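Work Package 4 report. The design task specified in the project plan requires that, given a folded chain encoded as structure tokens, an amino acid be chosen for each position. We show below one input record used in the internal validation round.
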């Protein structure tokens, strides 16, 4: 015998209903995968397929501008091609610093390119599992970390001695308004850092994934009709002190995660890069 409970809603109950304010909507998922950044209704899906041939050609053209032209020409040209960017603050002292460590939240693989474009000079970016194709096509220098703490610390110090270095302490991208826990290694590399708050928006394709086709990530981002980026340079911070009190590398990492989160209006989490890949790809992200 199967027993079922049936609930009926009366007309009286229905009259008490009201529209739920957007502020009370369920929060978005912290981790999710897939390329589509919109609700795939029949009309919107048809528009996507009609857009894709032009989108592919536009993405190739945008990538060529990124790779082959200097920033003084590429930035306005990319704006003409629909790539909207906004620099909220960019102090001249940061532009002049050639051996500065910059840390930022991680939205897409293009994060170091936007930071480099705002600074007006090339930087070096540390990576984990970026595809070889992305490394070869990158207009800025990329260096892979080994996940050996002492070895990576020495490598980052060497890179910083050679020039400006960009590090994303989250270790992986996050699409939604959340920050993944910051690795504290950067705080042991330099006496001070410049935090950079980044926000990116897409309307059609996500430029991030956990699949083996990660070389498509930048291409998918560039295929959006009007991809957007906002870059905000924050004040330089000493890595050994918070409010005049001496602190550990973990404390400064948590502090800067919170400060970048406040600036962006993002929620900080204790999830790690490994957590993300275990949830989405059933591996630890080392593949």
């Amino acid at each position: 015998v199967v027993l079922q409970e049936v609930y009926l809603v009366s007309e009286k109950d229905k009259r008490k209903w009201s529209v739920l304010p957007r502020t009370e909507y369920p929060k978005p998922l912290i981790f999710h995968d897939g390329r589509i950044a919109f609700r795939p209704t029949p009309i919107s899906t048809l528009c996507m397929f009609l857009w894709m041939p032009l989108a592919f050609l536009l993405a190739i053209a945008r990538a060529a501008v990124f790779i082959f032209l200097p920033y003084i020409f590429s930035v306005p040209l990319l704006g003409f091609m629909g790539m909207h960017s906004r620099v909220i603050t960019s102090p001249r002292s940061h532009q002049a610093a050639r051996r500065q460590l910059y840390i930022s939240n991680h939205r897409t693989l293009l994060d170091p390119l936007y930071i480099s474009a705002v600074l007006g000079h090339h930087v070096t970016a540390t990576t984990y599992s970026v595809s070889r194709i992305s490394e070869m096509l990158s207009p800025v220098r990329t260096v892979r970390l080994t996940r050996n703490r002492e070895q990576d610390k020495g490598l980052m110090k060497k890179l910083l001695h050679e020039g400006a270095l960009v590090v994303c302490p989250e270790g992986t991208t996050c699409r939604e308004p959340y920050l993944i826990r910051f690795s504290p290694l950067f705080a042991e590399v330099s006496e001070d850092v410049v935090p950079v708050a980044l926000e990116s928006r897409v309307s059609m394709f996500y430029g991030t994934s956990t699949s083996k086709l990660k070389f498509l990530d930048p291409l998918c981002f560039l295929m959006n009709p009007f991809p957007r980026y906002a870059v905000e340079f924050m004040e330089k911070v000493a890595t050994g002190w918070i409010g005049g009190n001496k602190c550990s590398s973990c404390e400064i990492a948590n502090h800067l995660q919170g400060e970048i989160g406040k600036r962006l209006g993002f929620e900080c989490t204790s999830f790690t890069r490994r957590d993300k890949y275990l949830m989405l790809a059933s591996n630890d992200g080392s593949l």
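DSSP finds ten helices and twelve strands in the chain. Validation will be extended to a larger panel in the next phase.
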